[in-house]
Specification:
Length: 166
Amino acid sequence: MTGCKRRYSKVKIILAHLGGSTPFLASRVAILARYMGCQLTSDEMLCDFRTFYYDTALSAWGPSLSAMNNFVPHTRIVFGTDFPGEWFLRCIESFIWSYFLMSLAVSTQMSLWFTRQLINHYSDDEIKLRDIIRNNALGMFPALCARILIKGSTGVANIHKIPHKL
């Protein structure tokens, strides 16, 4: 509403959990903001909402993903789980951390359920699924992307130097 997103347009913002209610309230905020003194038009505000990235943590479910696909292009959706993962659990050996981890609200099974929903939703479009799971996030960090090992179609790992600007 203040125009900060436009002033700092290179800042990439990820909204967790598919933005919560953001996709559903964006039009209401865009229309009502003019009455609250916002200088941006409703269309400009809606355009700004579409510049955010939205992660799938605990939100990847068919109807939610369908709504997001109508709100933003799939290139604005990034994979998220809200759980540190099994590798993290194996790394933690102290009693304090084990106690803390037992009290976490999100289990591996919960994260896997949402991940399976994401895979099922995009089962007919492997390119979109790969973009959401990996490529969209890499695109946010071009310097990192330039250094990542990318497997070619032959299965041989090659380092691809991707031109980028910082």
